Amino acid sequence: MYEASDKMVTLIKDNSSVLQTLGSFGIQLGFGDKTVSETCEMNGVDTYTFLAVVNYTINGYGEFDNDEHISVATLLHYLKASHTYYLDFQLPFIRRELQESLSEDDALGHLIMKFYDDYAQEIRRHMKYEERTLFPYVESLLAGSPLNTYNIETFSKHHEQTDKMLRELKLMIIKYLPSDALHNNQLTATLYDIYNNEEWLRQHAEVEDHIFAPAIQRLERLAQQDDVSKNISAMVANGGAEGTDALSDREREVIIGVVQGLQNKEIADRLFISVNTVITHRRNIARKLQIHSPAGLTIYAIVNNLVDISSVKL
């Protein structure tokens, strides 16, 4: 476990992989004997978030589901810079190494180059998807105006598929590429870089899945709570009339059942409808009112005179 008071140079001496992490956080070399906190502060980086990523990628330490100290803005900058490094430097660099290592007259070598290009295209597609959809969504959350067309549950990950492609590439090089001594040394060096590349991608994916995604889910929950508060405030300000016209009679009956503490099956039995129909009504109610919790619906029902407070199960 590394702490804010440790010297930054110690982290690098212990774990050379931290060098790339520094670059993605925007931390420049030349920090002398400064501590982690001093170096982060000097570079405008949140120390807690930096240490969370470092300690997780080095030794797997961290429980981030309810960690409110993680800076989403810092993580977003880190992931954007990681994409730039990988797409603009790492992928072209390994391709050049492969080209130099493979014989121009080797048909199998040409096939391996094509396989690598397909792999690179898949990686690029995945990262560009995140840059077009996920990152702007996170920025909208941070700005307090979340985009309604997206949420973290639709974050489509393709890490497993690209991992398989990388494993196949390594095996093809190891098993099927006889070469002279020169090309063998070049292929060995290229393989070494591919293995390092694989480890970097694994860490990148785990930071996204285990630190970034939980942090976004917390922001979404806060945004939903804000929406409920705004809707309830609007209802009170309008004398309890806001939004009632948008609901059908059946939806109002479902709300009454919810605030009285009934389960979906009990509501279905009372209204002589199926459980699936109750669930559909509840989804429509949440969409129309932007209220997603029983507590929020309870306040809505009381304010709009759908139920008497004495009938509510508190």
Helix-strand layout with pairing:
Layout: H1 8-14, H2 18-25, H3 36-42, H4 47-59, H5 72-101, H6 107-142, H7 159-176, H8 181-237, H9 249-259, H10 264-271, H11 275-289, H12 294-303
Helix pairs in contact: 2-5, 4-8, 5-6, 5-8, 6-7, 7-8, 8-12, 9-10, 9-11, 9-12, 10-11
Strand percentage: under 5%
| Approximate helicity band | over 70%
The dominant shape is elongated
Distance between the termini: 45 Å
Can you tell me about this structure?
The structure is a single chain. By secondary structure, this protein is mostly helical. The protein has three domains: 52 residues, no CATH class; 150 residues, no CATH class; 68 residues, Arc Repressor Mutant, subunit A (Orthogonal Bundle). 70% of the residues lie in helices and 0% in strands. It has twelve helices and no strands. The two termini are 45 Å apart. The model has no long low-confidence stretch (mean pLDDT 83).
Which terms summarize this structure?
70% helix; Arc Repressor Mutant, subunit A; mainly alpha; 314 residues
Structure summary:
The protein is an all-alpha fold and 314 residues long.
